[in-house]
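Example 546, ligand J2J.
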Amino acid sequence: LTAPAGPAPTWPAEFAERYRAAGWWRGQTFGGMLRERAGAHPGRVAVVDFGGPDGSRRTWTYAELDRRADALATGLAARGIGHGDKVVVQLPNVGEFLEVVFALFRLGALPVFALPAHRLSEISYFCRFTGAAAYIVPGEHGGYDYRALATQVLASCPSLRHVLVASDDAGPFEALSEVYARPAPRRTGPSASDLAFLQLSGGSTGVPKLIPRTHDDYLYSLRGSNEICAVTEDSVYLCVLPAAHNFPLSSPGSLGTLHAGGRVVMCPQPSPDTAFRIIQDEGVTLTGLVPPLALVWTEAAPRTAYDLSSLQVLLVGGATFSEEAARRVAPALGCTLQQVFGMAEGLVNYTRLDDDPELRVTTQGRPISPDDEILVVDDEDRPVPVGTTGHLLTRGPYTIRGYWNAPEHNERAFTEDGFYRTGDLVRLTPSGHLVVEGRAKDQINRGGEKIAAEEVENHLLAHASVHDANVVAEPDPYLGERSCAHVILRDGAEPVGAMALKSFLRGRGLAAYKIPDRIVFVDAFPTTGVGKVSKKDLRTAAAPSA
Ligand code: J2J
């Protein structure tokens, strides 16, 4: 496990030329984008959060965000962080998230996006795998002490030179607020074709894969998203989902909104009580939710005393959203539902605001770009007729050509001619819209949080009493899917119960959402004709009786 010197797989020259000629890639960087916006309207509010003392409101104008990102970049540079360095960023929905990200963009250092839910297992892996130079955390958040986590991470990651804490009480580490320094004279930043960051993949393998995105390709997906979602400088985007997730970051998300010169409001937590008050007080015009939250909001909206009339668009995506639920959104919330089927690897599909209303509730939209190539194929990679369900393969101007430093996995996850195998089963409608019908990848989609079965299985196998383990999805009325581990215990080993196994997994530093919701003990696994474990049969084998 070492930091690779080699670059990430990239687009062949002829594709890059085509995407530039078409105007998709414009040679702009994130640093340049923010500078331009700050120049155009310095005094407009760019960011609002509730991260002040006792949850008080704070604001950043475009000029302030620009200046503070510069000041932070200067201080980071003074600490030896520069072009190509990796920095694991694990911050909640606060303004510092955007300051940090833009500071790193300016330096050409790469944020590695972690989620607040991640723990020692995930974070130490990200740090070691990327050879990260720094790790940036909140002090305490959601009742959890990230300084204590950082102490453990530091002990296991020799490359880490700095832990920075976005809190007055940094414990044994340096407070992020100490890092801001008077901006130095102009330094040369990255170029638009350079990597901007490493995004986390949902994953279906033993260890998470990292997704290398460039300034050029990501900025194109933002411009495209803004056009489709009608984001302008009058838009107010509420960032409800964890800010580092690809959906709230880019569809159109906080970065899309800043690109348009609009306002990003960081939501401290997603409950209707908090979010509805903020929608009213801040005049929020659009936001994005995963299906379970969209359901909760839809239930709560008709009874709320808050005025939600500013809300124009609710994006829902990340997991299957039933047609019945989709039909209820617009009437309950008084806004337009926009379905989004996206992936951190690239391709994002949206229903259009002016699509036929039926398409808006029965499909997951169509691609952003005319240059997004979509193939729906059978198990032998042969195209299936329109209307038939098959595997979705895609390539295009903002879909990666390979994961970061994963040559063997890339052989499987991409076709020879560069199509990404999404692992999703879809059907195309005659209108060119996609309907997500299922999944071929070995993953659990727990209300939008992706869990790679193999990763959890490996942790279970590390227990002395576990002979074998398989983790599969089972239906959940609220989450859509939850995870169930089927475990065969070792003959003659110390018996162990479900509770003990769960706390064993927690003790290994696995994020809470990956801990199986249910663990069942079995004597054997069902097998397929060729003797492989049949996950399909497992999914139905132990379905809980109603
Ligand atoms: C069914 N499954 C969906 C949908 C994603 C916008 C929106 C979502 C993501 C995201 C994103 C789905 N219906 N509407 O990055 O920019 C499942 C598919 C897909 C996987 C990607 C964005 N929308 N999915 O969810 O990288 O299985 O991105 O391949 O987290 O989520 O997960 P992720």
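Summary: The pocket of J2J is lined by residues 202, 246-247, 250-251, 317-320, 339-344, 348, 364, 422, 424, 436, 439, 445, 450 (CB under 6 Å).
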